[in-house]
Amino acid sequence: MGISKSDPIIIVGGGAFGLSTAFHLTRSGFTNISVYEKDDQIPPRYSAANDLNKIVRAEYEDPFYTGLTIKAISEWKTPLFAPHFHQTGFLHCASGDAPQKALDTLSRFRASAESNTQTKPHVIPLNDSNDVRQACWQLDGPLTGWKGYLNRFDGYAHSGNALAAVYRATQAAGVRFYLGQHGAVDEVVYVSTIHGRKSSGIRTKDGKFHPSSLVIVAAGGAVGRLVPELGKKVVAKSWSVAHVHLTDEETSALRGIPVTYARDLGFFFEPDPKTNLLKICPMGGGFINTDSKTGVSHAPDTLEESAFVPEHDEKQMRKLLAHTLPALANRPLVKTSLCWFADTDDSDFIIDYVPGTSDSVLVLSGDSGHGFKMFPIFGSWVLDVLETSQQRNVQWRWKQSDPNESKGNWGGDVSWRLGESKELSEIKPKILSKL
Ligand SMILES: Cc1cc2nc3c(=O)[nH]c(=O)nc-3n(C[C@H](O)[C@H](O)[C@H](O)COP(=O)(O)OP(=O)(O)OC[C@H]3O[C@@H](n4cnc5c(N)ncnc54)[C@H](O)[C@@H]3O)c2cc1C
After folding, report:
1. Residue with CA at minimum distance from ligand 1 atom 47
2. Is residue 58 included in any domain, yes or no?
3. Same domain, 247 and 393
4. Ligand 1, closest atom to CA 371?
5. Second label for 88, Cα 20 to 30 Å away, from 99, 298, 354, 401?
């Protein structure tokens, strides 16, 4: 191993991948870890995981990720994580209007759930809307043409609370946190050595230099600003998120419902009992924010730029509610935002050293909108890279960027998503465009 357990290690980003890494490194005896986070709080408002809930489902089109999620789910049931994991089930359907692509994807997910020996006993086929109603009586809408399956092995995690729990645990274990103006990282600093370029640490936006032996960049949708070598291999992308504010009685009536997902309409979760908020996400091809000079998409710098959802997505969320919980279909949508993540064209993560840095910069990226479920175990894969000095898993290796590569078809080619990606500038409400 190139790095010793007492060497200073800097982790940039106090979101899901950064905190999980701090947790696993500390647990395996690393003693000199500092996390730099640009927000002044954890869970950070810029983190895609600063949220009420994220789906934790084991079925994947790629059995590699199914195996990993089964492992993650068993860790979700251990004392630190268990308060934040809710095994409510995953009701996975398509409506009668769903295009063939959505039906095909649903079939692949179902085949995955039914072929794995651990998930199979938990799968209930839902052959029509009556079956869906039997599986979840609270869904009292028409559910026109709905069919699919319910997988009781799955559920969701309260992601914001899980981040807060791991923050407290790692802080108690000696990890240092630098937040806000002291934690916002401007650049990874490099020096030339006889062996080539090597990072000597980072510079924060307040101008201070912080030395380290290893910089681990876990900056979510903002990764391209700190690791420009990724080029177009990682695309900052966002999806809409909105909530309906329920009464206490409505929240109680929906307690324990499964994560309800129609592939062509989007999904929602059981309401959060603390805030009475029911979260909805319409999915789709997502929104990108391409820099016209470089062709690379970056997450916007301010939260204000993402504090809305486009009209089309609002209509789709209302349609989902009209199908399932019609009493909520015309309610105001609150806490609307675009949530940014780091997308790759094959939906694989990147957990590898940045080439040409003498193994001094490790990047954790490409979460592709499905990384949170791995929160309890993600950091163990980083540990593995440090211990073996290489990424043994080919799927997570560095992806070489080609500067001549065109923007590509971000969204349309991804098997598990419907629709094309649009530019943020095309969908921004007029009032925000003037900011
Ligand atoms: C709408 C939506 C729905 C999703 N649903 C699911 C789901 O159902 N299930 C699931 O498993 N996953 C889901 N995900 C994906 C999940 O949220 C991500 O995989 C996960 O949050 C990725 O973790 P990360 O650490 O890479 O990024 P983040 O959690 O976004 O954290 C990155 C952190 O880096 C910080 N940072 C950035 N730049 C700097 C800088 N220069 N200096 C200091 N700090 C910096 C940010 O402030 C942020 O806190 C969803 C994502 C979105 C957007």
Report:
1. 46
2. no
3. no
4. 19
5. 99
Whether the pTM exceeds 0.85: the reply is yes
Closest ligand 1 atom to 239 CA: 1
Whether residues 274 and 334 fall in one domain: yes
116 — phi, psi (to 5°)?
-80, 130
Token reading at 106: 């649903």
Start-to-end CA distance of the chain, whole Å, equals 49
Please list the rounded mean pLDDT of every run of 10 residues in the chain (435 residues): 91 98 98 98 98 98 97 98 98 97 96 98 98 98 98 98 98 98 98 95 98 98 97 96 98 98 98 98 94 93 96 97 98 98 96 97 97 98 96 94 62 68 89 55
Q: Which residues line ligand 1 (CB under 6 A)?
A: 12-18, 36-39, 44, 46-49, 54-55, 183-185, 218-220, 222, 226, 239, 241, 281, 339, 341, 367, 369-373
Of all protein residues, whose CA lies closest to atom 27 belonging to ligand 1? Answer: 220
Q: Give the count of domains, the chain.
A: 2
Whether 9 and 141 share a structural domain: no
With H, G, I as helix, E, B as strand and everything else as coil, classify residue 90. strand
Does one domain contain both 316 and 365?
no
Taking CA atoms only, the protein residue closest to ligand 1 atom 41 is 185
- C-alpha span between 299 and 288 (Å, rounded): 8
Residue 268's domain spans which residues? Answer: 87-154+235-343+404-435
* CATH number of the domain within which 396 lies: 3.50.50.60
C-alpha of residue 249 to centroid of ligand 1, in Å: 32
Which atom from ligand 1 is nearest to the alpha carbon of 365? Answer: 26
Same domain, 166 and 219: yes
Helix 16-27 vs helix 378-388: crossing angle, to nearest 10: 60
The answer to whether residues 351 and 248 belong to one domain is no
